[in-house]
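Case study 2.
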Amino acid sequence: MHDSCKTPSRSPSPTAPARSFLLMVLRAPLTRRAGREVAYCLLAFPLGLVGGVVLTVLLALGAGLTVSLLGAVVGVLILVTGVRLARAFGGVHRRMASAFLGERLPALEPPHAGTGLFGRLDAGLRDGAGWRAVSYVLVKLPVSALGMYAVLWWLTGLVNVTAPLRWAVLGQQPGPGDDGMPVLTPVPAGGLAVDTFAGTFGALALGVVLLLLAPWPTRLVVGADRWLLHALLGTSQLADRVRDLEETRALAVDDSVALLRRVERDLHDGAQVRLVAVAMSLDMIKERLGPPGTEHRTALTGDGDSIDLVRVRQLVDGAHRNATEALTELRDLARGLHPPALDDGLPDALATLAARSSIPVELTTDVPRRPTPAIETIAYFCAAELLTNVIKHSGATQAILTVDECHDGMLRLQVVDDGRGGATIGAGSGLTGLVQRVRPVDGRLLVHSPEGGPTTAVVELPMHA
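Prediction:
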């Protein structure tokens, strides 16, 4: 193509950026974003004022009583109440930010539940997310005041824009001795006023300028509030990473359990059935060979060759024995992958396990919520291993197996025996394998086994992997 055929390129106009900036400034007061931010500042002020004042009083009162000897417990109780109240205020602020600003913040991590009065108080004082909420509610008080100052720009602008209307319609003319109609500004201006109708148009122009500028201090305050929301009421990057890892781990554990169940069913419905068919076929061959008293008989094939029936019987017996042993091993392997009794729930599976024990086992279960399949599998194998240790090593005459759900949402499995004691978690002990089994789901194993017994082993697992 010749150069004469090319369309000459047009360079952007040097006034284009200025025109875009001017349009942005003119449109800013009319955007939906500006309206939402003003509404957010208006509603956040009373909430920030009440929350900041109430929380300041509670913290001051609680701290003062805590340092005293007589009111220490009451002071700690007030502090914990303040932390919980800050969580509630933080929840309202998160919902407001979601409704007006479009901020989607996850809920704060739930506080840890302690045991007993002092345990709950200690957990309340150690509530890191709750103290972040306290920080936000306290800082929100001055921030909400700044938000109202930003709203003042809008109010003064709107009032000044109506100056000609108020002069002409509402009779705002100055009387004798008056300085004139006041002109409002969001900054101290030293008593501006107009005393003529023409001067009201100057107030109108000032009002227009204030309305054009008002979105920017509002946006600045809201931007600072957004940062505080994410920093104090949102989850930290470390907490997000931990949550992602926990979710990934739960998926991996659940997938591995589902895979083991599929393998167990494939073995049960496939390989075991084939081995049973082979064993039955070998039984039929043994019957066709006749009773064992015919060891010296021989048979002729169609080609005139002789068959040693004794040798054939020996081969068939060996094949039948191998098939039976392989079937037994395959059933044990399938049971080790996933006990079929778990399909009906952990209590039924443990009842079956206790019934098969060679020593008496007293079983008590109280699990109102069913754990996930992965947790049920881990709990079952932990119970099986603990009972096996009792039978093999403790010399106990009976055992007590208890499974219940604790108040803190953990599944607790406890095995108590009347054996000789002395069990420890360490190298060469089967208990070490249990520690490794429960560790991937943040479970733990506790063993108390003094010499002479009794031995108490406790496994704590979360209800969900």
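The first strand starts at residue 181 and ends at 182.
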